[in-house]
Fold each of these.
Amino acid sequence: MGTHQEGDVPVRCRVRMGKDGTSECGRAVYRDEEVCICHSRDLKKDEVAFYNMWHAVLASTDLIDLSRFVFPDHIELDRTKFGRHTLFVGAMFVGEASFRNATFQAGSDFSEAEFRKDACFADAAFSNQPMRFISARFRGGADFGGARFGLGTANFEDARFSGAANFQSAVFDTADFSKARFESDSYLSHARFLGSADFASTTFLSAADFTGTYFERQVRFVGDGNNLVFASTATTSFLSSYFQAPQQVSFHHVFLGRAFLRGVDVRQVDFTDVEWAARSS
Ligand SMILES: [Zn+2]
């Protein structure tokens, strides 16, 4: 950053925030940085001052805008009720982030957020759209077990799960996991998809467990190019999963050579370009 000349010192933080990323932070810059304490990536930044800043935002009566905030330590917001539209767009969680049993009552956006350690949204309730985790990065485990996603689309498009991803017994209305990437085991057993479930261009690199999962409407598992959705080395289980509208279920260009489909009525399911055995290259 270098030494600022008198006169061109950026006294206000210009990090983009707001619903469309169109407004600027405007807070005073932190020490000799060009951004404020909330957006400073200094992991040793003044703990108390930062805590007071972001807790003031939580109490906001308008938008709860924590876009691109950098949380240097673990945060625990279990059972918190977010009564306003809540933005964690591009936020960085350096430590564990826990939102267990939290309630997002007016929409939430975690798009492009980066969770460097475990993220816990177990039993959280997302009451209204939008519920966005578009391009979010979960570098540790991601626990959405028992989470309830309300009306609207639970949008995990292009999200990347490096650790185990747990969505056991989660309840979705519409779910978009297109282009999402599950790099470790994923657990969607006993989840309920009450709207459409989109797994187009999704990648499961390890075991995928859909045991006892309920799909009420359209379901799409669609690969593209070399991506056949499911790994050729790990087990995929659809044991006892239930497709309420089998004529709207499609498996296109996918690998199902290690998939268990026992107990599934697949008579009307559309299987096109499915690989039932691993390629011997
Ligand atoms: Zn700022």
Amino acid sequence: MQVTCKNCGSVVRVRPSHASRTKFCSMACRREFQASTHELKRHLDGMRFRCKQRKGWADRGIKCCIASTEELLNILGPKPAAGFSVDRIDVNGNYEAGNIRWATQKQQMNNRTNNIFITYDNKTLTLQEWADRTGLSKGCLHYRHLSPRWSVEEMLTTPAKKQAK
Ligand SMILES: [Zn+2]
């Protein structure tokens, strides 16, 4: 009988009496799979937590529609590397198949800020373009943009070091 390893996908031959019990080609694969399942569980818990606790998410109806780590794995595949987390492609959409992907912090930040346009001095540019022009970080501009204390002029012309007002 043949069994496909749940971790690496390689096909192994096993005795028929062992087929139902065998899920991995090796102990190493079993351990790797368990570690990655554990990690996926952490991400899934985080997704559920954010839907419940993040300000405004419940009001916007953002939900986690992923029922299990297996489902998450089927949709996304294993986590590509440390530093990746589950990102929603449409930031107003749910955690669900078609709207999630593995992304780094930087990609997630881009996703959230790419469609923020700011007009100043007769120019309308994205946050990134303003960051390039002003030498301020995009994170800094984003923070100021969200804070009602900053006017557009102040947010673009105040040096980063003098943030405290
Ligand atoms: Zn394997």
Amino acid sequence: MTQVVASKIPAEGLPLSFTEDPAALGVAVLGARFLQPLSVEVRLSKAGNAVTVTGKIAVPVAFECARCLREFPAPLDIPVASKFLPSSPSLAPGHHPMPENEAEDYYYQDDIVALDDLVRQEVLLALPFSPQCRPECRGLCGQCGQDLNVGTCTCAPPPDPRLAVLREYLKKQ
Ligand SMILES: [Zn+2]
Ligand SMILES: [Zn+2]
């Protein structure tokens, strides 16, 4: 847990660098393999009650290609420029609302800025939903499993996808 006491951030700002274990942080997702801990380098500064966090998160990660299933390294370098605001008193204690998108602010409570929340959210937003080793990856043959990037196979062209949907539907009946 990396937390900072907001009132102790000096006027000149607070540079911080630390590492986070992806598993402990809860960013481990299927198809992504973290090669090393994430490394976070940020600077915190205060403007009134707001705490701004700028810097970057380096994520050494390899993904499994959604098409050909081969693993490929694709380290992420995520820029951070976020703001923590004191949470409004109307919120229940222990409730940490998370922003719905990158443009929204984070909140801190009881003078504690939980940087883990920010790191988790930024990394989850940056992970590709359907990683592909390269844009033109041809994937595997759906019938024999041949890697079509490497060579062709002799299978018949895939059946009409509309029929496949129907077949799936009938299978579930
Ligand atoms: Zn691929
Ligand atoms: Zn085939």
Amino acid sequence: MKALEIATPNQVEPKDVLHKTMENSIRSKKPRMAICYDFDKTLSPNDMQTFTLIPSLGMKSDEFWEETKDLAIHNLMDNNLAWMYQLIVRSKPLRKSISKSYFHEVGKDIPLYNGVESWFSRINEYAEKKGIQVEHYIISSGLKELIEGSSIAKEFSRIYASSYYYSPDGVAEWPAQAVNYTNKTQFIFRIAKGIFEEYDERVNDSMQEKDLYIPYEKIVYIGDSATDIPCMRLVKSKGGFSIGVYDPDKDERDKVYQLYNDHRISYYAPADYSDQSKLFSYMKQIIDSIAAKEIMKTEQEVLNIPVEMYAIYRDLKKMSDETLLSEKQRDDFSSIGGLIRGLIEGKIE
Ligand SMILES: [Mg+2]
């Protein structure tokens, strides 16, 4: 009977242990990707205020938006600040307080496109199988508090949208955030850099590609209209994916055709998020392509382990020949170089 061979510490080469440890650390990293969504007419078939909020003020939706538009035009006002102001003004004569809890309540009534509710778990599960972690973000000009009340709020890492400042008794008093089409782009930078808080000005600091929380080529933006153009353009120009969606029932495609023709988006599809939809199929292709690139990147990083050590060894070797240094210093560099050399796989000179 053959004697059982027991490995002793002396039989293990330090370079093998080092390489394995570094390789394991590289291979255990789980790459992230982000999917960013506009809300109105992207995840939901109409403007979120239209369903319950505006009727609760005794107004028709068209009437409210017409008034808001006039207010903006005659006062050179931002459209979002105009509707936020108008909501407060219109609620006062009714002695109705516009509170955060009321918004959350009303948010429950917002309808969503087909398949939206199960989309997130299906996407997360598919990506998980491919070794990718997906984070979902809302970037909307609509009202954050309404989205927070919706059934899908829990799916998002962050909800970036317009919101109110509330008095101590919980009544909306003043805009805290007014998100319009151009300042929507700041949130793409926040997600990429991992500088998430709205007040944090470090979002403007320069950051190297390797330090990004989510590199731009792993960001997807989904929107429906002209207000999404700056985000679509930013994401697409930085190597990410921009998608235009249109209402599947109305089938009005002017906007997506125009966006595609103007190279703002890389794909368009009906806003159908169900299992068999074109959108789900395309998103799986995006995840596949990100996963394939990540595999190549991981292999390159593993190959780079001895290469980087070799570069250090070469530099130390040069220093050990440097005549400007004392003999003691040259000896020190030589002995550290010898140590490093012992950690590099393969024969080198
Ligand atoms: Mg929209």
